[in-house]
Amino acid sequence: MTDDTIKIVRGFKDIYNSSELKLLDNFKTTISSITKQYGINELRTPILEKTELFNRSIGSTTEIVNKEMYTFEDKNADSLSLRPEGTVSCVRSALENNLIFDRGIKRKKYWYYGPMFRRERPQKGRFRQFDQFGIEYFGFDNINSDLEIIFFGNRLFNDECKIDGIKLHLNSIGNEEDRLGYGEKINSLLSKFKKELTEEQQNTLTRNPIRLLDAKSEKIKEILQDLPNLVDILSTESKKRFESLIEKLEQSHIKYTLDNSIVRGLDYYNDTVFEWKHDSLGSQDAICAGGRYDGLVKKIGGVDVPAIGFAAGVERILMILSKLSQNNIQENSVAIINYSTEDNFAGLAITESLRNQFEKISFYSTDSSSNIDKQYKQAEQIKPKYILFFGDEEIKSNTYTIKDSRDKVKKEKISKNELIKIFDKINK
User: Which of 99, 197, 247, 279 could form a Cys-Cys staple with 201, CB 3.0–4.6 A?
Assistant: First the structure.
């Protein structure tokens, strides 16, 4: 690569690693399976939307709209933006295509998956283009919909992905009046220390003080530590709703942590809010977040429609899954080491016939032009269940040498029937 070689845009990423691609494919398959179980329909929206959509919904004073969106004018002088998140586009589509109205409000469930764009500071697990998966429930206002959303997340992260150490953090931010009153308490405390706040923190204090509950500043945490939790001063209706949610989660044996700092960074949330967090990600530890947003449909141009959903950062989830799977053997994979000097093609032909016979097994061919030691190192990186060897002797005698990666036992000169029996067990 020369100095004038064009490189990728900062904050964006190529995906070419086979293990990462496999994790990605498996995650998509898992999502597709669970959404079918819950009766959730897929909704695909364009990556480009009118900027006004995000100004009106997310909030024109938020950091996402002010600093992070990729916004430009097209040739017609229309202001357009690459979508920074998926919920708002889903609401716009549901309204525009009459998906939730037909002589009244229909109860509808949708899921989406696709790229989002934010001009954030690139860091581990956070890119300027990132995949987001989300589910949205429209027309559901009872507590069971809050529970089902959480059940879905629990099934995805705990039961299917088996992410050890993931924790559900839960809070209620009540209604608008609750938040305004609590914001005044925060403002009253922090305004005395305004000079010690950054410009950004001062702006947040003016625009939406409760967001400072999620601030990473130890100084702010210290000042606000004596403040009562928001859940303790909720309106009667919001408090009753949250208490009911907690009671039913406990009955369902769903583990959770009450967390007053969970307030969400978007303006459209109310009542139930939550995040799934994982300690391995550092200070930016949320992999999935969401909550109830009953006023968003009206904000965008519809009537009042109750709604709840969540969005998950796919790259962050894959980071965790990658760490968990680093030492895991791929149970349905076989690495091929072809070290024949007389008939190199014969080994390739045998491999291809095995692919035809065992469609659910991945057969990885190492570089047959390399010596056997280099091929073996390549094979180990794949973490296959078995390593299959083809040399001149094996090809001539129509026998096989195979090694189990788990117990390191090598079986030499086994027949084709014996090999088929071995592969039948993992061809599932």
Answer: 197
